[in-house]
């Protein structure tokens, strides 16, 4: 850390655009450099953010002694490699989701992180969205009593995503790239999920792109205490307007109440019941819109990234581990792997046995 600020280098400048914006607006950070293989995109970002340099060689950022943290926003299939390069160069890592696209590389990654003594934080952005953060704060204040079930979903017609070359290459799936947000929310509230079962369909709409990946899925995930979550995803067909059904939604049912938060609407709903009767709350955070969505439309995540890079910095200052770390992220990937196997076998699958299979 130089001058009490963390110097951050950004790798991958599509979604990486948001973290550049977050760094520029943060008192905890300064921007070290930006990097993308696409030189035209580098120039575009340099102009957009008034920067004076870029590189198309990742090695330049790895060799730069001024850089403390690498923010990784490359295609999913490259994350493991890019994280390990950063750790071996002595950098902390903030990596977007999914941290990896299968568990084959997990053990090596874990050892690499341990040997480096550096942190790897996984940017599960939805946790850092306003209404989702608020729901968590209320939950920690025990507003709904004891948790009974979680209902999480990510439903969004995302066929536009299949225009990207890497979305049609091995390692991409709707499950790992999209549904992970809903899975992460379920695992955030039920960190001991150990069994999953589900059904999925590859719709004709996804097949049209030559992709054989389930685009519509429903799962039940149960934890070691017998509590469970339903987790649903739908990506290849029309969805309702976000005002009717949040694209990402998390509903918590507890002994004393129920709450709902989600993305991308600035709304939170809650009902609690006590001896005096029912208490309904509907909070809105519309004034935060431009903090979260800084570019055209609502297709980037700058506010969430601002929240998580600052959370990362504060944790480092306190000498604590920013979460989700690799261990937590691997558990989430283990749940995804169990989901995949359940679709293949038609049976419930244990998460723990999958993690053990990979030495985790
Ligand atoms: N909510 C979220 O957290 C969120 C949202 C969108 C995307 N993402 C994640 O961000 C990542 C990037 O997604 P995207 O939508 O920006 O994709 P994208 O294809 O637009 O951008 C990826 C960029 O990485 C660059 N790149 C590829 N290999 C490289 C290398 N070896 N060195 C340097 N640059 C390289 C490409 O040129 C491209 O510009 C994905 O992992 C995706 O899952 C996360």
Automatic annotation (TrEMBL):
Residue ranges constituting the Gfo/Idh/MocA-like oxidoreductase C-terminal domain according to the UniProt record: 136-351
Residues of the Gfo/Idh/MocA-like oxidoreductase N-terminal domain: 9-123
GO molecular function per UniProt: nucleotide binding; oxidoreductase activity
Keywords from the UniProt entry: Oxidoreductase
Similarity field: Belongs to the Gfo/Idh/MocA family.
Name of the molecule in the record: Dehydrogenase
């Amino acid at each position: 850390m130089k001058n009490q600020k963390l110097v951050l280098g950004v790798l991958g400048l599509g979604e990486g655009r948001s973290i550049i914006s977050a760094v520029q607006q943060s008192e905890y950070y300064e921007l070290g450099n930006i990097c993308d293989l696409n030189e035209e995109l580098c120039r575009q970002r340099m102009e957009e953010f008034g920067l004076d340099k870029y590189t198309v060689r990742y090695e330049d950022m790895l060799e730069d002694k001024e850089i403390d943290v690498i923010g990784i926003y490359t295609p999913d299939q490259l994350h493991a490699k890019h994280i390990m390069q950063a750790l071996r160069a002595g950098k902390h890592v903030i990596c977007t989701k999914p941290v990896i696209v299968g568990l084959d590389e997990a053990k090596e990654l874990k050892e690499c992180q341990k040997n480096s003594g550096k942190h790897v934080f996984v940017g599960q952005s939805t946790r850092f969205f306003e209404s989702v953060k608020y729901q968590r704060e209320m939950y920690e204040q025990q507003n709904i009593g004891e948790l009974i079930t979680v209902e999480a979903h990510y439903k969004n017609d995302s066929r536009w995503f299949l225009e990207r070359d890497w979305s049609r290459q091995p390692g991409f799936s709707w499950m790992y790239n999209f549904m992970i947000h809903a899975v992460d929310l379920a695992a955030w509230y039920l960190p001991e999920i150990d069994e999953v079962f589900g059904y999925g369909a590859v719709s004709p709409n996804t097949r049209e792109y030559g992709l054989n990946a389930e685009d519509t899925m429903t799962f039940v995930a149960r934890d070691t205490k017998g509590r469970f979550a339903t987790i649903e995803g739908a990506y290849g067909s029309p969805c309702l307007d976000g005002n009717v059904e949040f694209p990402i939604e998390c509903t918590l049912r507890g002994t004393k109440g129920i709450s709902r938060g989600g993305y991308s609407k600035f709304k939170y709903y809650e009902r609690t019941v006590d001896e005096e009767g029912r208490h309904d709350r509907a909070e809105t955070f519309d004034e935060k819109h431009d903090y979260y969505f800084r570019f055209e439309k609502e297709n980037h995540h700058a506010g969430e990234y601002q929240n998580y890079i600052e959370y990362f910095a504060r944790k480092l200052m306190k000498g604590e581990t920013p979460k989700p770390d690799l261990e937590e992220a691997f558990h989430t990937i283990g749940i995804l792997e169990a989901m995949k196997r359940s679709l293949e076998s038609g049976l419930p699958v244990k998460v723990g046995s999958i993690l053990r299979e990979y030495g985790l």
